[in-house]
Amino acid sequence: MSKPNALYVMSGGGTAVISASAHGIAKQMYEHFPDKVGTLYAAVSGMRGALNEDLTDVFAYINAGSTEDDKRFRLNQLKFPATPVFGTSRHNPDQPDSMRFLDVCKVHDIHYAFFNGGNDTAEKAIRIQQYAKEQGFELYVICIPKTVDNDLLITHRCPGYPSFAKQVAIDTMSVWGDIDAFGIQPGAYKGGPIREGAVAQVMVFMGRDEGWGAAASVLGKYDESVGPHVILTKEGGFDKRKFLDRCQNAYDRFGRLLVVASEGAFDDKKMEYIGNKLEVMAYREGLFFKVHEDAHKNTSVTDSRVALYLKLLLEQTLKIPADIYKDFKVREEGPAYLNRNNLEIVSAVDFNDAINVGTVAANIAFGKQISGVMVTLTHTPGQTSYVELCNVADAEKGSKAMTKSIKTLDTAERPVFSPDGMMIDRELFEEYIGQFVDINGPNRRELLHKEGFQLPLRKIEWPLEARLLPPYEKAKK
Predict the structure, then answer these.
(1) Strands 55-57 and 5-10: what pairing?
(2) Is 3.40.50.460 the CATH classification of the domain at 163-340?
(3) Domain 5-159+343-402+440-451, what architecture?
(4) How far apart are CA 133 and CA 124, in angstroms?
(5) pTM listed for this prediction
(6) What ranges do the domains of the chain cover?
(7) Higher-confidence residue: 155 or 394?
(8) How are strands ordered across the β-sheet holding 198-205?
(9) 459-474 per-position pLDDT tens digit
């Protein structure tokens, strides 16, 4: 009797460590469960690839190595990229897609499906599992967590977030050093015939619905004079008057200003993302800003619009002493997609977490024979557990109905947000995530240089399996 096969599917935006999870599951299956699984397939380009039957045989790729060292190198290659090594997509499967997914599983004798992603991915996994059960098809479904947003319930932290937090902290400290260098140093002469422009900075990081990313900028504050002086998140809210008061106060006291915001910074009174306060258009060329919506009804918000709005607001409102400065310039930037795929900055603890959840997913499926769960991380480094998928996502209400807010860090003694919602309690935040961010630890090249990692990192061209089904045709709605 032939052994059943497994399928690995990456989903949604990547993280700096998502490919480490692919390595973890492949290594564990390859080395410890050869008696229980025929091969591990990976869907090239995520769910889209799965439905189009674009599958690659991971074990065959490893075994194509001519020596044991070459095979080991091929296995290690899976964890090298800071992006999804097999590609990804955001496609959200409906009933016909679930039917097609099952057809692909049947024809390739796949009875184990591993989905690597966040809330939206857990929602997909629930839908696939329910349909397989209805059809009487034995399919073990396991979720491997990942997301820079850190908004998955139950798990202490999400693989990918500590690396993102490390990048945010380092980027913020780096920019703060630049602002500080242009400021007038304590004790230096102010005023006189030489007057330069006053400089401030706005930085925006990823985080549409939860502000975990921007919150990590607080890790760079060693006293109140050091930026950021304002942190805007969706949970903390945005009040224009309170925002300007906090900024003016910081500039009056310290002669410098650094504002950090989530792309999802939100005006609770007007019920809108503050980035949408800014209309972007090029009248002379007839170009207008387009708002995009993905398969999960997530409306795009962009760091560039948020940053530019705050720049304009500050430049035209903040009061700068004219006897010292000739004008006021607010610089704005957002690392944008580097937030989730920085090739160098990574937390070693997070990297090992990502490998570990992949390893544990294989153990749960082949050792415990459990289905319909997601691997979770506990407060203790290196320790894992698992939880039923219905506790992290809801296929009816949508995945966004179940997310973890920064406010979960509140204690009975004090809240994590300041009274105006525009600053994070550094002590509470560091107590939660500090040891996992590994801010002074090694980065990717230091972690992997002995395993053959070298820049520029060449993409693996995955050989595709022969398709056994007709091309997927789906009736348009």
Answers:
(1) unpaired
(2) yes
(3) 3-Layer(aba) Sandwich (3.40)
(4) 14
(5) 0.94
(6) 5-159+343-402+440-451, 163-340
(7) 155
(8) 230-232, 258-262, 198-205, 328-333
(9) 999 999 999 999 999 8
